[in-house]
Amino acid sequence: MSFTLSHACRLGASRLGLVRPLGAAALRPASTAAYEHILVERRGEGERVTLIQLNRPKSLNALCSPLMSELLEVVHQAEQDPAVGAIVLTGNEKAFAAGADIKEMQDKRFADVYRGSFLAFWGGVAQCTKPVVAAVNGYALGGGCELAMMCDVIYAGEKARFGQPEIALGTIPGAGGTQRLTRAVGKSKAMEMCLTGDMIDAQTAERAGLVSKVLPPGELVDAAVKTADKMASHSKLVVQMCKEAVNAAYEMTLQEGLHFEKRLFHTTFATDDRKEGMTAFVEKRKANFTDS
Ligand code: CAA
User: Fold this and answer.
1) Closest C-alpha residue for ligand 1 atom 8
2) Alpha-carbon distance 46 to 268, whole Å?
3) Overall pTM > 0.85
4) Residue 151, pLDDT above cutoff 80
5) Residue 101 CA to ligand 1 centre (angstroms)
6) Residue 215, beta-bridge partner list
7) What HEC string does the chain produce?
8) Structural domain boundaries in the chain
9) Which end of the chain is more exposed for a tag (fewer CB within 10 A), N or C?
């Protein structure tokens, strides 16, 4: 297993006797010195899941640029670490994230945001090649809803609320809200949410297809970790291909997508893990994937 910053912090935390049982409240900083706005730890079998908790509770986890830089850094580390198979992203019980930081944006001018392509780097979360599961308790508004939608799977706590309230601030969603939300819930509901700024509750979000599971708030993070851990138990190579194929459905025509899928399916036959998976099935044993 490669030695990452989170390992270093975990070791430090162990030495200090800070290792505690599962539960969102038990998250501890990967390094208080390194990260100001997020907490990071490793979970799952063999610590193969990176759990990231957004941690600006006084601002309802408003997504200021330093927070997003830290988040992208850890996502990048997890992506580079061969021991990590999946990522879980969460907030706290009141807020996953209440949006981009309005106080940071308040005095920005057009020239600043346009020239600097403000928020463009957030898209790195959606580019991650490993599965990312969002565990959303409380508010997921504006950029918070957009960040959740950059993840591959969204689980919601029963009191979660989703919305794109930018319209009430005199602006529009700027990190995928008009695009990913429309693809997730359809035009009518996306228009309604974006043009009124109204929130929807977790149950409505599940019915609309925005989230795949609604859970009691206290069970949410563990359930997301369990799902991420299951994803991480499979061949990382093939998981990456599968994610690429599903994501292609957003970008291609049906015929292009079917062709792309077929070619990736064929490509799995070039891997050791495809052979191992099928052999293990026939021999009635657990597959031992080597990510090759
Ligand atoms: N940015 C900065 N600070 C925020 C924030 C945000 N997005 N959301 C909440 N906060 C701050 C509040 O200013 C407040 O700080 P102070 O204690 O210093 O006053 C603190 O968090 C607690 O918030 P409230 O007192 O408002 O809490 P509440 O329980 O009464 O209301 C809420 C909760 C309904 C979520 C309300 O905070 C709210 O409406 N927040 C803004 C939501 C929003 O408009 N998000 C979109 C942002 S724009 C965007 O995201 C653009 C994009 O597409 C990327």
Assistant:
1) 98
2) 25
3) yes
4) yes
5) 8
6) 157
7) CCCCHHHHHHHHHHHCCCCCCCCHHHCCCCCCCCCCCEEEEEECHHHCEEEEEECCHHHCCCECHHHHHHHHHHHHHHHHCCCCCEEEEECCCCEEECCECHHHHCCCCHHHHHHCCCCHHHHHHHHCCCCEEEEECCEEECHHHHHHHHCCEEEEECCCEEECHHHHHCCCCCCCHHHHHHHHHCHHHHHHHHHHCCEEEHHHHHHHCCCCEEECHHHHHHHHHHHHHHHHHCCHHHHHHHHHHHHHCCCCCHHHHHHHHHHHHHHHCCCHHHHHHHHHHHCCCCCCCCCC
8) 38-232, 236-282
9) C
Residue 104 amino acid letter: E
Output the CA 61–ligand 1 centroid distance in Å.
9
Are 43 and 66 in contact by the 8 Å Cβ rule? The answer is: no
Helix axes 65-80, 5-15, angle to 10 degrees: 100
Instruction: Provide the CATH topology of domain 236-282.
Output: Lyase 2-enoyl-coa Hydratase; Chain  A, domain 2 (1.10.12)
**Burial (Cβ within 10 Å: 0-12, 13-18, ≥19) of residue 266:** exposed
CA-closest residue to ligand 1 atom 39: 98
Structurally, at CATH architecture level, domain 38-232 sits in Alpha-Beta Complex (3.90)
Cα separation, 24 vs 218, in Å, equals 8
Q: Tell whether ligand 1 has an atom less than 6 A from the beta carbon of residue 150.
A: no
pLDDT tens for each residue of 182-200:
999 999 999 999 999 999 9
Residue 100 alpha carbon to ligand 1 centre in Å = 9
| 162 closest CA partner among 179, 191, 137 | 137
